[in-house]
Amino acid sequence: MTPVTALELHFGDGEYLFDLKLPQLAELQEKRGCGVFAIYARVLKGRYLLEGETIGVTGQAEAYVEDLAETIRLALIGGGKGLVNGVEVAVSALTAKGLVERYVLAAPLRDAWATAAAILAARIEGYTPPKKVEPAAKPATSKRRSTSRKSSRTAQSSGSIGEP
After folding, report:
1. What are the backbone angles phi and psi of residue 89, rounded to the nearest 5°?
2. Three-class SS of residue 18?
3. What Å distances lie between residue 97 and 43, 68, 105, 112, 164, CA to CA?
4. Crossing angle of helices 22-32 and 65-79, rounded to 10°
5. Where is this region: Disordered (predicted)?
6. Which helix (H) or strand (E) holds 38?
7. Which range of residues forms the domain containing residue 96?
8. Is residue 47 assigned to a domain?
9. How far apart are the C-alpha atoms of 164 and 153, rounded to whole Å?
10. Other beta carbons within 10 Å of 70
């Protein structure tokens, strides 16, 4: 399967599609005054994989708030949709701006840092989404084996342990 560059993430009040398409990528580079790889490098500084889990050491971070906010805003615009309370919503430039103001700029930056890192990683490295498990046609059944003393070597007698 070819890796994809867009991903769905929980953000703010729902699940949103984040996609840095070429127009959004060009705008990100223009607004930040450097290439996407430089932005990615800044955002990744201070983020480590430890025993399969990503951790962020804020004392080592080098990303600017604008790196995070603009990455998220532009990826929301590129994704163009979300799911809020079970209802599909369209994400316009105005909607994306409001979401970033509400859930990035007015909140602790740790979550925005992780979200921006995931968006940039998907665009630069690619992302292979987990396979969706199809429900089984029939429930699995197993044959039960008797646990009576005659058919089981491990069955205990009804007496005390150690009794013959």
Report:
1. -125, 145
2. strand
3. 20, 13, 10, 14, 79
4. 160
5. 130-164
6. helix 36-44
7. 6-125
8. yes
9. 14
10. 22
Specify the DSSP class assigned to residue 23: H
DSSP 71-97: HHHHHHHHH-EEEETTEEEE--HHHHH
Token pair of 7, please?
A: 């991903």
Q: How many domains does the chain have?
A: 1
The whole-model pTM stands at 0.78
Residue 12 gets the label, from left (phi > 0), alpha (psi -120 to 50) or beta, of left
The closest alpha carbon to 109, from 56, 39, 31, belongs to: 56
pLDDT digits (tens, 9 = 90+) for 28-77: 999 999 999 999 999 999 999 999 899 999 999 999 999 999 999 999 99
Residue 145 within any structural domain of the chain: no
* Residue of 21, 25, 38, 6 whose CA lies nearest to 122: 6
